[in-house]
Amino acid sequence: MPKRLVSIESRTLCLQNQLCAYQLKRSSARRTLALSVGKQGLIVHAPWRLSVTEIERFAHAKSTWIWEKLQHYATRTAHEWAWCDGMRLLYLGREIVLNVSSHSHQVVLIDDVLHVPTLSPEKIVAWYKHEAMRIFQLRLAGFSPQLDKLPSALRLTNARTRWGSCTSAGVIRLHWRLIQASMAEIDYVLAHELAHMTHMNHAARFWQRVAVLLPDYQQPHQQLRQAGHRYHDMCTELSSS
After folding, report:
1. Which of 149, 172, 174, 238 is least surrounded by CB atoms within 10 angstroms?
2. According to the model, what pLDDT value does residue 76 have?
3. Domains in the chain: boundaries
């Protein structure tokens, strides 16, 4: 009896001009394509030898249904997390430790220890969002010399199905939870959205523009595709507050 082949990989595709993260699960035992959407996002179940082009063509045909389901789960209240003193969180690609101390008067990060006066998820999320905007603005400033035109606005988003978006008016939105990723991954997402200011698709010229903005984008791109679910998983819990 032939051995059953199974693989799982994290990927992204553009649906209705928006970047959508999904998990591709292949199996040699499967004969048909199927989609499922839950709290972990979009999952595509596919036969082992089916090409990515055919798989994503199928997803494009179901894009309206996909976004409706993703929005449904994005607006549901996430289950509560067991917040506790000493727990580990992610920040800029590294682990930090939560320290609850009455001696702390505000949320502050010192030597990879996040000091908080009380165990308040709301204040921790607010700190993450503040840091996200601060870091994203700094990284955008680094790209500015390469841009013919600056974005009309840089905003945070909480849409858990994608890392960023760019409108035709030049408004760039980045997922605040991306602050958990490494600086290289943040730069990749920002370069990706900045490239959309010139090319509102993912054709060859788009990727050429990404390469101009961030020549070594392939490594953080691959890293985000393979491990980006860690940031989604952790910050789904963060947003439960």
Report:
1. 149
2. 53
3. 6-75, 120-238
- Assign 78 a pLDDT band (cuts: 50, 70, 90): very low
Q: Do 70 and 41 touch, CB atoms closer than 8 A?
A: yes
- pLDDT for 240 equals 35
- Residue of 28, 122, 79, 108 whose CA lies nearest to 237: 79
Helix/strand/coil (H, E, C) string of the chain?
Answer: CCCCCEEEEEEEEEECCEEEEEEEEEECCCCCCEEEEECCEEEEEEECCCCHHHHHHHHHHCHHHHHHHHHHHHHCCCCCCCCCCCCEEEECCEEEEEEECCCCCCCEEECCEEEECCCCHHHHHHHHHHHHHHHHHHHHHHHHHHCCCCCCEEEEECCCCCCEEECCCCEEEEEHHHHHCCHHHHHHHHHHHHHCCCCCCCCHHHHHHHHHHCCCCHHHHHHHHHHCHHHHHHHHHHCCC
Distance CA 70, CA 68 (A): 6
pLDDT at 114 over 80: yes
Q: Is residue 140 within 8 Å of 151, Cβ to Cβ?
A: yes
Answer for the pair 149, 170: CB distance below 8 angstroms, yes or no: yes
Phi, psi of 163 (to 5 degrees): -85, -30
Residue range 120-238 in CATH 3.30.2010.10? yes
- Cα 123 to Cα 100: distance, rounded to the nearest angstrom: 12
Mean pLDDT of 169-190: 95
